Amino acid sequence: PGGSGQVRALREDRPDLADEPPALSVRHLGKSYPGFTLDDLSFEVGRGRIAGLIGRNGAGKSTAIKGILRFISARGEVSVFGQEIALREREVKQMIGYVGGGFRFYPLKPLAAVRRAYARFYPRWDPAGYAACLSRFGLDEGKKVRELSEGMKIKFALALALSQGAKLLIMDEPTSGLDPLSREEFCDIVLDLVRREGITVLFSTHITSDLERIADDILYLSRGKLLADCPLKVWQSRYWLARFPSPERAAACSAIGVKPVREGFEGLLLRENLADPPPFPVFEPSLDALMIHLEREQENGL
């Protein structure tokens, strides 16, 4: 029931990206596997902004990040602060810090040993900055990696990335194993880094509440295609989450991704198509609600 079976892509022109090369520019990124294709992905992340990369499991988020970082071979072009990574990979990667979900390397080694090995690869390694990160994050270099909690492992990975001189942080599900308080603390740290130091962040996660707190922009992937590339508030302001007494009423209103809920039926409505005020209950949609109903509409259209 409901909707047109099609979800229109939303891409907004970004004047903030016009004056200087963006922190990250991705052009026609593609990768094919049996049963899945990352399809011609193009987007930019402006300097000093936090971009959230979202989508259901299997949408292509990790494949996109691996392609950007050249962890896998992929079609397309990637530039960081105007420099193409394929042409100057060693130099460009000095500007990128990568933080994944947890820290899985050298579990039996103390942090000091890991730091010594890591720092050798970065000519601009900042010992004073690293010491400041240790103090700020409450890290003890005498501890072994396996002795750290998941939250402390993430902080250690972040300390390494920041101390190498990274100006672009690319993070793939960094908060997936953290409890709510640790996630809150991590998001506060990232937001503070962006505000104080002008760091740029590409943040892939399925925990969309983290992005609602800190993200400037949203990149929404579905089945390997980019369906939204715009500021977070613009995407949310495009829709109302509406509640209907029946699926027939939802269909009559061209609701998107209608599904049953305890109070009746819910779906998304394009605000541009609505009378003011609408004749039924409407709410501001969360990122979770947007993803759920847009994905459902995609499934209805298959």
Topology at a glance:
Layout lengths: L9 E2 L12 E10 L2 E10 L4 E5 L6 H8 L6 E6 L2 E2 L4 H5 L2 E4 L11 H9 L7 H11 L12 H14 L4 E5 L7 H18 L2 E5 L3 H7 L2 E6 L2 E7 H6 L1 E6 L2 H6 L3 E6 L2 E7 L11 E2 L3 H14 L2
Parallel strand pairs: 1-11, 4-9, 4-10, 7-8, 8-9
Antiparallel strand pairs: 2-3, 2-5, 5-6, 10-11, 12-14, 12-15, 13-14
Helix pairs in contact: 4-5
Question: In a nutshell, what does this entry contain?
Answer:
With 302 residues, the protein is α/β, with parallel strands linked by helices. The chain has 10 helices and 15 strands.
As a percent range, the share of strand residues is 25-35%
Low-pLDDT sequence parts: 1-6
The major sheet is characterized as:
7 strands, mixed
Shape: globular
Structural Rg: 21 Å
Total of helices: 10
From the N-terminal CA to the C-terminal CA, the straight-line distance is 13 Å
Instruction: Name the average pLDDT.
Output: 88
H-E order: EEEEHEEHEHHHEHEHEEHEHEEEH
Report strand order across the widest sheet.
1-11-10-4-9-8-7
| Residue share in helix | 25-40%
Determine the structural class based on helices, strands and strand pairing: alpha/beta
**Overall number of strands:** 15
